[in-house]
From TrEMBL:
Coiled coil: none annotated. It comes from the Bacteria. This is Cytokinin riboside 5'-monophosphate phosphoribohydrolase. Its EC number is 3.2.2.n1. GO terms for cellular component: cytosol. SUPFAM superfamilies: MCP/YpsA-like (SSF102405). One of its GO terms (biological process) is cytokinin biosynthetic process. InterPro entries: LOG, LOG_fam, LOG_family_nucleotidases.
């Protein structure tokens, strides 16, 4: 069965991966934009710290993150999705897996992730980010750092969650703390390293920059 074989192939490949951070973000981020540059930097710094990156393997922010990681010599994973129009892996993916089903692919983003970062994006990015929050909140996923990159971009969502969801009693105040917000790529790397000290030790042992 196709669905089952997608799970088997995905688990088989990603279980071998080593520590990696899933990074989501818009397919439409332009290469000349600050958000693209931030994505490259996120990929590069995570790779230098010893983390692989996992993206949707497509254009825009996904390409930026794969690019930063690959150019720094890191593991650069793309979990591609078959879409009604032509879609290929961006050229910076060095380990690609293709999926027909979005829901199988979403399991793969989180099952082996040591952390999650959301760059600015649209509904796809929101969907992937909030799946991570839901799974951590309900204890279905080991608590990993979850970071919104772009304080101004995400401010509306964060403020509304605090002012409306929390005050209506639908979200516990402490659950808001599951999600960090920053404009600082180094803070992302520090959060990931603090949660995974063994990665820091290994990358130091391998002559890593940290
Ligand atoms: C130009 C265009 C729309 C290409 C679409 N090609 C795509 N290739 C791979 N993953 C994708 C694509 N579009 C959306 N996604 C998924 O949804 C997220 C981005 O959705 P959005 O652009 O924020 O809502 C990504 O993290 C990715 O996992």
């Amino acid at each position: 069965m196709r669905i089952q074989s997608e799970f088997v192939e995905g688990f088989g490949t990603l279980a071998e991966l080593g520590p990696a951070v899933s990074v989501f973000g818009s397919a439409r981020t332009r290469p000349d934009s600050p958000h693209y540059r931030a994505g490259v930097e996120v990929g590069r710094r995570l790779a230098e710290a010893g983390f692989g990156v996992i993206t949707g393997g497509g254009p825009g922010a996904m390409e930026a993150v794969n690019r930063g990681a690959a150019e720094a010599g890191g593991v650069s994973v793309g979990l591609g999705i078959e879409l009604p129009y032509e879609s290929n892996f961006n050229e910076y993916v060095n380990l690609g897996i293709y999926f027909r089903y979005f829901f199988v692919r979403k399991v793969m983003f989180l099952k082996y992730a040591s952390g999650v970062v959301a760059l600015p994006g649209g509904v796809g990015t929101m969907d992937e980010l909030f799946e991570a929050v839901t799974l951590v909140q309900t204890g279905k996923l080991t608590a990993v750092p979850i970071v919104m990159y772009g304080v101004d971009f995400w401010a509306g969502v964060r403020n509304w969650m605090g002012a409306t969801m929390v005050s209506e009693g639908y979200v516990r105040p402490e659950d808001l703390e599951l999600v960090h917000a920053t404009d600082d790529v180094e803070e992302i790397v520090e959060l990931m390293c603090a949660a995974h000290p063994s990665v820091v030790a290994a990358s130091r042992g391998a002559g890593g920059s940290r």
